[in-house]
Write a structure and sequence with these properties.
- The chain has 567 residues and is α+β, with helices and mostly antiparallel strands.
- It is built from 15 helices and 16 strands.
- Strand 3 and strand 4 form a beta hairpin.
- The protein is globular.
- It starts with 30 loop residues before the first strand and ends in a 13-residue tail after the last helix.
């Protein structure tokens, strides 16, 4: 591949348009009320883009195609940290110590197809369906605490860059880093993904995060912002690329096999569920926005509060019916839980359910794995492909499928619980949030890694960037120097670039550097950065990570790590 610099030309025939032929003048941001949101439903370009994206594959999932489902239960502690759960939420599943709620969970890879390797470098899906007495609650997250982008309008783009080339049908590093180099907020996620955390040793040995910011609502209607964390009691373990290649040479489904066999032998994996809590406002005192899912909430400032334990204890009886047809969605919340204005969450909430209706069918919620098992379902919905019943309530007049009616039809619930979220005012706009600060938390993650994780990160980044064109290499090394001197220097050395080779590059047109970032650019490569692990154990996902071998993974990880029960 020619790696010489290229000057891109932009003829008028290559202007981006929608399917109506309308030129797209802003492909970076949805239309929102103020730069923080909420997003508005009349986002035609976003709706066209995301609905087409949701329908790109038949019948397997566009993303998270390979996955594994099992069942278990969540046991609440009755508290959030040291306080009664009722202080923060009226959600019934959290209220009483010892209360158990059945659940299904689907672990998955993201980019690979249904028969792809389970030790590929990839985020892992961590999606939990709680069958509560108030109906289902889906918490759809990943094993990494952050994401590549902060606005859902970019979701098709980031996935397209990670998917195989539409011509060669190979996953190409040049395509991946071409997109990422123009997307500065992705640097935090890339620093996670290309470290060993991007290849968990097994599903049992990885963390889970809700990623998005949600809300809890108490009986008075008071709201707080919340982040969800699952920490495995058997510890975190990951693979280097070298060890993963050895596993892949013998078993493409090592993670599913490990989980299935552990449950069958009675070695039921457990995770402690924690939350971080923040007052429900925009927090101008922070140098990052709490609704930005490319950011974490540092645990030294927003400590983890224990809420209960998840135990997995039963495997599926039929892979297709229970794994291929299970359908999760971020819009599936119960009373006492609510959405924030996180722009990724708003987009996901529309996209996920839209995808399931297309992929599985209009009546996907009538399938046993998706039914609200512990709450009665009564709707006026009927018909559609593959319908096999109507959701008729006991004693309901079957002739009445509308509301209101005085002829014994369904009626509204007798009262609505209070919800007192902040009032939002702002101008409709398509813009990014103010507090981007794209390099600070990536620097924190780089510093708080274990030494072997940092070494593997540098090796992986440098190896793949070595396959990219020179202009992509230069911009990526520029970003890495903006994160940390050592990061830029070590990766740059692998592709033959030094700070003086990239210092001349201006910020991207879409960037608005902070004062500190402007100073870092001026002193690129000479910022005097140190590896400072002082926030070890207080920086989300910077926990002890076992360096697993291929032999351990292929041997079922038996006895590798001791249980790490919540204290």
């Amino acid at each position: 591949m020619d790696k010489s610099p290229k000057t891109p030309s932009k003829p008028s025939s290559q202007v981006l348009t929608n399917r109506q032929g309308h030129p797209i003048v802003n492909n970076q941001s949805q239309r929102t009320v103020g730069n923080r949101g909420p997003a508005t439903l009349e986002n035609y370009q976003f709706l066209e883009k995301i609905t087409h994206f949701d329908r790109e594959r038949i019948p397997e999932r566009v993303v998270h195609a390979r996955g594994f489902v099992c069942y278990g239960e969540f046991e609440a502690s009755g508290k959030i940290g040291d306080e009664p759960a009722s202080r923060y939420t009226r959600a019934k599943l959290f209220q009483d110590a010892g209360k158990k709620t059945p659940l299904a969970i689907r672990f998955s890879t993201v980019i690979g197809g249904r028969d792809s390797s389970e030790v590929a470098r990839d985020p892992r899906g961590f999606a939990v369906k709680f069958y509560t007495e108030d109906g289902n609650w889906d918490l759809v997250g990943n094993n990494l605490a952050v994401f590549f982008i902060r606005d859902a309008i970019k979701f098709p783009d980031v996935i397209h860059s990670l998917k195989p080339d539409p011509v060669t049908f190979r996953q190409e590093p040049n395509r991946i880093f071409d997109f990422m180099s123009q997307t500065p907020e992705s640097m935090h996620m890339l620093t996670h993904l290309f470290s060993p955390r991007g290849i968990p040793a097994s599903y049992r040995h990885m963390e889970g995060f809700g990623v998005n910011t949600y809300k809890m609502v108490n009986a008075k209607g008071d709201t707080v912002l919340v982040k969800y964390h699952f920490h495995p009691r058997c510890g975190v373990a990951s693979l280097t690329a070298e060890e993963a290649a050895k596993v892949q040479g013998q078993d493409l489904g090592s993670a599913s096999k490990d989980l299935y066999e552990a449950i069958e032998r009675g070695d039921h994996p457990q995770w402690d569920l924690y939350v971080q809590i923040m007052e429900d406002h925009d927090h101008p005192e922070l140098d990052w926005d709490p609704l930005d899912d490319t950011k974490i909430w540092p645990e030294r400032d927003f400590p983890l509060r224990h809420v209960g334990v998840m135990t997995l204890n039963r495997n599926v009886q039929d892979h297709f019916n229970e794994n291929e047809q299970i359908a999760m969605g971020t819009g599936v919340l119960v009373d006492g839980l609510d959405f924030s204005d996180d722009k990724m969450l708003v987009g996901r909430t529309f996209s996920y359910s839209d995808t399931q209706r297309y992929r599985v069918g209009t009546n996907y919620l009538q399938l046993p794995v998706n039914q609200a098992k512990n709450a009665h379902v009564s709707t006026n919905l009927n018909g559609g492909q593959m319908s096999y019943r109507r959701d008729v309530a006991p004693g309901q007049n079957p002739h009445v499928n509308y509301e209101p009616s005085i002829h014994n039809g369904l009626h509204e619930a007798p009262r609505q619980e209070p919800n007192n979220p902040p009032e939002i005012r702002g101008r409709l706009t398509r813009s990014v949030i103010d507090r981007r600060n794209d390099y600070l938390q990536a620097r924190g993650r780089y510093c708080t890694m274990m030494d072997w994780e940092r070494d593997d990160l540098v090796l992986n980044m440098g190896t793949l960037l070595g396959q990219c064109e020179r202009d992509v290499q230069e911009r990526m090394v520029w970003h890495l120097f903006m994160i940390h001197d050592d990061y830029g220097r070590r990766v740059g050395a692998m592709v033959g670039l030094k700070a003086e080779d990239v210092r001349h590059l201006p910020p991207l047109p879409t960037q608005a550097l902070t004062g500190d970032e402007q100073q870092r650019l001026k002193n690129m490569g000479r910022n005097g950065d140190k590896i400072d692990p002082s926030v070890w154990g207080q920086w989300t996902s910077s926990v002890q990570n076992h360096k697993a071998s291929a032999e351990e993974v292929l041997g079922g990880m038996s006895g590798t790590l001791k249980s790490q029960a919540a204290e």
